[in-house]
Amino acid sequence: MYFEMLHPAWDSYAEDGLKDNFRSCVLKVSSPGGSLLIPGDIEADAEASLLTDRSLDLHADVLVAPHHGSKTSSTEAFINAVRPSITVFTVGYRNRFGHPKPEVVERYLNRGIRTYRSDQDGMVMVDFRLQGVSADSWRQSRPRYWLAESPDAR
Questions:
Q1: Integer CA distances (angstroms), 35 to 29, 110, 114, in order
Q2: What is the pTM for the complete model shown?
Q3: If one looks up domain 2-153 in CATH, what number appears?
């Protein structure tokens, strides 16, 4: 397994006036079975910086959606560069910001990317194997018996 910190650049700390979100850590985890990109709370300006400075390093099988799927992140160009097959939106149930934004989710769905949301799916388990990457929702694979749909309900 290989870990690489893609962002922020050291010299960004010398720049006054940058938002904290610009300096979110962007971590890429790679293994023989696939790769994961964790971009923290970056927004469009940091995505643009990554596209300029690290575009060849961005492709990943799984992407944790930047900034929880806010309208200030997940630009078309960034999604196109990462080319994930799976995206996970880490969001709280009924969060006050309304993340992920529907138009952002749509950007992923329009590309055929499977999406998961922690507020709806619970824990998302991602398995990186030589045969490929797979994901599963905890709530889907282990429903509580009192919430499971009965055959009569259909």
A1: 6, 22, 15
A2: 0.88
A3: 3.60.15.10
